[in-house]
Amino acid sequence: MTSQYEQAGVNIHAGEEAVQDIKKIVAQTHDSNVLGGLGGFGAEYELTSVLAGVSQPVLISGTDGVGTKLLLAIEANQHATIGIDLVAMCANDVLAQGAKPLFFLDYIGLGELEPQKVMTIVKGIANGCQQAGLSLIGGEMAEMPGIYRSKDYDLSGFAVGLADKSHLLGAMNVAEGDLLIGLESSGVHSNGYSLVRKIIQDADLDLQRVYPGLQQPLIDELLTPTKLYYQAVYPLVKAGQLHAIAHITGGGLADNLSRMIPSKLTALIDPASWQVPAIFKVLQEAGQVSTDEMRQVFNLGIGMVLVVSPSHLDRVKTGLKQQNTAYQIIGKVVKRREQSVQYQA
């Protein structure tokens, strides 16, 4: 007999099935500091070993979602990589403060709980956690018909990392003459998708078409997951070779890099120093978007910027090459001009 709760749209049995499948996936992300597993009222993470050698421990946390990129994933019924985006939006922020990522929690709200879809989403989250050095230690899954339509869902995440107070990254370390190293993005990442969707609608773009310059259909290009930079960047952080990091999200290079620039200095960017990926050119031409607005909304091919002293440049370049991470020197820090971040003409 169908229960009244099920008649109201909530399937308890489907939820239990999903949790059992998720437990196996989540366990693959755990390190030795995770106590117990899923099922308790709170997730437990032991700090004894990670605090070794840290004289002034500081916990750094970050929370975020995926934004309207989710609507494209739902429309295309492609859910395998959207969880990577969720982790990246949080983990890259924590990394930018100079923290070693520790653990991650997620929230999934759905209109209708389909165990196979949930498992696909969580596999993506677990994949992202493994790339970011995070243990996926807990989360929440809520079936809420009436708030979400049957096929709709939403994601949010929460990451925690650890740093030594004396080694925090930020504007306080940045000096005139520092160089800006731009790390390539994997595409649009997870910002600007309200504009992306407007362009698709207004220009009547075909999501299944391979547009000039692209190597795959437009939908696959747009759902390419946000790049995680932990493996390439954290060794540089640990070695003390960076002054600051900017994770390039909504607001583009100018808004995000400005957070890392002291009031008496300017980050001068050379826009000709890297090649803008084809996906941005497709969107700009189809939407007739100005270059200024493209710079304000999108990463345009630079997903993270490292602020580096010239004395550390060779070691940083060597470290990035060892991790097969593509980069370009995109500018430098100079005496203050009109703004904290400027593009060369």
UniProtKB/TrEMBL annotation:
Q: Which InterPro entries match?
A: PurM-like_C_dom, PurM-like_C_sf, PurM-like_N, PurM-like_N_sf, PurM_cligase
Which cellular components does GO assign to this protein?
cytosol
Give an example GO biological process: 'de novo' IMP biosynthetic process
Listed Gene3D superfamilies: PurM-like C-terminal domain, PurM-like, N-terminal domain
Q: Which family does it belong to?
A: Belongs to the AIR synthase family.
What is the designated name of this protein?
Phosphoribosylformylglycinamidine cyclo-ligase
The record's subcellular locations are: Cytoplasm
